């Protein structure tokens, strides 16, 4: 089940990257590159940080083809995207939760401590979006808009807590996905966010 969700997540994130590239008027090659890094960048950064070599996508070429197709399909259907906005938000939330859980699993299999496992999950969940925004010359949205990175943190903690208590893996996945989607959708619906730190040197002088 997790693999199927992972495929959906890769496609959704590739499409979000393609849309971001389109807003910056990039050519087709630029669209494909941004789609690739958005979808697979988080897992790549995670593998490098954890010393998990070879990097996952290098052993699964179909992931590359999926990101390319996601980017190209987005170019074709971009005119209709406004009608699919709500669906796209749900797919993006699914991607966030799926990548977080997969990141945690990779770190667990490598025998890392809990805090490292949590950070691996968060890195996998959000870093693709960070790379996308940096490459598109924007302040990373995952760090300044509705709850996003914090949703990844909550999902990672819940997933690991249930696993440590011996809860059935399918039940654990269902609980993590349900809470993650609920938090993310609520954050979008009611614009929930963490307190913002705004520093002005003149204000404190």
Which sheet architecture does the biggest sheet show?
Answer: none
Instruction: Give the number of domains.
Output: 1
| Low-pLDDT sequence parts | none
Q: Can you tell me the overall shape?
A: globular
Give the SSE string: HHHHHHHH
- Structural class estimated from helices and strands: mainly alpha
- Percent of residues in helices: over 70%
In angstroms, what is the radius of gyration?
17 Å
> How many DSSP E strands?
0
Q: What is the mean pLDDT?
A: 90
Number of helices: 8
What are the salient characteristics of this protein?
globular; transmembrane helix; 8 helices; Gly_transporter; 205 residues
Structure described in brief:
This protein is mainly alpha-helical and 205 residues long.
Task: Please outline the helices and strands.
Blueprint: H1 2-23, H2 28-50, H3 61-77, H4 85-109, H5 114-135, H6 149-164, H7 169-190, H8 201-204
Helix pairs in contact: 1-2, 1-3, 1-4, 1-5, 2-3, 2-5, 4-5, 4-6, 4-7, 5-6, 6-7
Any overview of this molecule?
It is a single chain. This protein has 205 residues and is mainly α. The chain has one domain. It is 74% helix and 0% strand. It contains eight helices and no strands. It has helices spanning 2-23, 28-50, 61-77, 85-109, 114-135, 149-164, 169-190, 201-204. Helix 1 (2-23) crosses helix 3 and helix 2 (28-50) runs antiparallel to helix 5 (114-135). The mean pLDDT is 90. InterPro entries: Gly_transporter. It comes from Marinobacter fuscus. The chain crosses the membrane at residues 25-43, 63-80, 87-108, 114-135, 147-167, 173-192. Pfam families: Gly_transporter. This is Glycine transporter domain-containing protein.
